[in-house]
Amino acid sequence: NKPEWYLTQVLMWIGNHSKFLDDKIQPILDKAGSSVNAGLEFSRALVMLILEKLAADIPCLLYDDTLFCHLVDEVLLFERELYSVHGYLSSFPSCMHILSEESCFQRWLTVEKKFALQKMDSMLSSEAAWISQYKDISDVDEMKVPDCAETFMTLLLVITDRYKNLPTASRKLQFLALQKELVDDFRIRLTQVMKEETRASLGFRYCAILNAVNYIATVLADWADNV
């Protein structure tokens, strides 16, 4: 239940050994005419240990939503630091290959949808759902976006950020299909609320729904260039 222990340990080993590998080992490899990068090879070997550990652990966690989600979150944080701080190469083996394996991936999709729907329930039942966070700052709030619409688009953005480093386009497309499903679900929820407000079509909430739809359509159009 604490994957961060071994993930953090590996990041510490990579960081603590980098100077030694660069200053002592790399010159020997260079002198021998080798094209091997000592630091990257050290990182690759440690990541292989993590892949073995994940392959053994994941089957035990598949049906515990809390533990499985925690594992995915920690793996994504680990991957981010591995690439951004330690210069790991995308051509090397990575944890995303393990998360892409069929049984694990389908579970990931299932829990991602489950928690997204729970988030949508809470955002629409919130007292602030139809109020703009920036209602008192006119130059920021030209579109008068209700809180629920902004929170929903942030949810979609976070999901994209979580799956964008998957190694294959087919897996990314499955996540995109989930996002499209969530957009349609949100549309249905807005329609249901709107039907309750038809008698007051100039009322506060009815206008907020129209603003939400306009905002979501505008943001999705902006995202159209994002392959």
TrEMBL record:
Pfam family, one: RINT1_TIP1
Cellular component terms per the entry's GO annotation: Dsl1/NZR complex
InterPro entries on file: RINT1_Tip20
PANTHER family the UniProt entry points to: RAD50-INTERACTING PROTEIN 1, RAD50-INTERACTING PROTEIN 1 RINT-1
Gene Ontology biological process: endoplasmic reticulum to Golgi vesicle-mediated transport; regulation of ER to Golgi vesicle-mediated transport; retrograde vesicle-mediated transport, Golgi to endoplasmic reticulum
Protein name: RINT1 protein
Gene from which the chain derives: Rint1
Signal peptide: none
Native species: Elachura formosa
